From TrEMBL:
It comes from Pseudomonas fluorescens. GO terms for molecular function: O-acyltransferase activity; tetrahydrodipicolinate N-acetyltransferase activity. Its EC number is 2.3.1.89. It is an enzyme of class 2 (transferase). The chain crosses the membrane at residues 25-42, 72-89. InterPro entries: Hexapep, Hexapep_transf_CS, Hexapeptide_acetyltransf, Trimer_LpxA-like_sf. This is 2,3,4,5-tetrahydropyridine-2,6-dicarboxylate N-acetyltransferase. The gene is dapH_1.
Length: 168
């Protein structure tokens, strides 16, 4: 039960919010506010850190992008990076800085790790928890540790949503 403080009285009486108001506030947060914050995060990462992220890409607030080599991260338009995903653009064990390129209309699943020097092609879906150690071609689904191609010839739309054809 959510509550607000009534500032009209000196004792700050607590009032209970009706369920419908809570639902509307929750909808506003999840649909409007959260979408706005994700868009602001992309602008901040581009401007402040020098990352090259397309304006319509979405990077989760819990995703971890490499700030050691921020100019080595490229994310294409229509791409979604889910929570807990890690994009690395350096390897301290070999003292190497490299680039990570994510193509257009890709989906990088939760807790996936993209290693330095990897290029992910356009319309690629990377499964949750996958560890991508080698470059990935266009139009595939990869998963596993290390990531392997599971399916080829897929088509994805914005944010990596798979387009299902009637033939399948």
């Amino acid at each position: 039960m959510a509550s607000i403080v009534n500032h009209q009285t000196n004792n700050f009486m607590i009032m209970k919010l009706p369920k419908k108001i809570k639902q509307r506030v929750g909808w506003f947060y999840h649909v409007v506010f959260r979408h706005f914050v994700l868009g602001l995060r992309v602008k901040m990462l581009n401007g402040l850190y020098g990352m090259n992220i397309a304006q319509d890409a979405r990077v989760s607030l819990k995703a971890k992008l490499d700030f050691t080599n921020p100019k080595g991260i490229y994310i294409g338009s229509g791409t979604y990076i889910a929570f807990g995903a890690v994009l690395l653009a350096h390897d301290m064990s070999r003292n190497v800085s490299s680039t990570v390129r994510i193509g257009k209309n890709c989906f990088i699943g939760a807790n996936a790790i993209i290693m330095p020097g990897v290029a992910v092609g356009d319309s690629v879906v990377v499964g949750s928890g996958a560890v991508v150690t080698k470059s990935v071609p266009n139009n595939v689904i990869v998963a596993g540790n290390p990531a392997k191609i599971i399916k080829q010839g897929i088509q994805t739309g914005p944010l990596g949503i798979i387009k299902v054809s009637i033939d399948e």
